[in-house]
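Continuing from the previous page...

OK, I double-checked the sequence for AIG1-type G domain-containing protein against my notes and this is the correct one:
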Amino acid sequence: LLLLGRVGAGKSTVAKTILGRDNFRSEGGMCVKKQGEVAGRTVTVVDTPGWDTVKYTSTHIKQEIKNSVTLCPPGPHALLLVVPMGKPLSSTERKAIRYHMELLSVRAWKFTMVLFVSEAEEKCTSIEQNQMIDKAKSILAKCGDRHHLLECGNSPSQISELLKKIDAMVAENCEEFLIPQVYYELMETTMPKEVTELRRMYEDREDRLKQKYKTELKEKEEELKKYREEEKPKERLMKMTSSSQLLPPSSKYD
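Thanks. Re-ran it with the corrected sequence; updated structure tokens here:
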């Protein structure tokens, strides 16, 4: 799992919550990698240094963000974009998110889930949650509307729920991982142009097929739901009919 977000977003707190340990702290603008057992599995978490606005993020921080992918070879299965609950995202913050996420690769969104976080003692109302989600719509659209609300320091069941969502995303991506952008750049400089174009063509085709199957699955689910709704009155009528047939015949002498 790769944690990304602005300065002060709460990435280190999220890392501690996931791994259940307190010694997870950023080290002078460097990436930090830790591993632990979570819900019976080994989980690797990489915490990246926080970014600033597009204009003020240093070259060093940008390079650390790019290098973060190489700390979990062959690549991370999931990127968690940490967004603190409270004040809705501004247009400047949304621009910074898009810019810094795509330092990894434009394909990074395919592996991304937005993680809205709050402290356990700072519960947000449903109205505040809806406002946050509404202001993050353009970001959520880029990552297939995948998101999770996490109260740090709360019950372990929240982490189990988060891992289930991550598992679903990994399965949807056919257990692929994010290949570092530097590898793509290397391939493009060493491979013939025809090969790189063919690779891009197959990647685009794969993405289109996945989207097509998702759309078809959703349509089938809607059809099944509609069919069940239409069948409910018929089932009730059949039950009433069968019940009336089981009643003993009435007698005029009763």
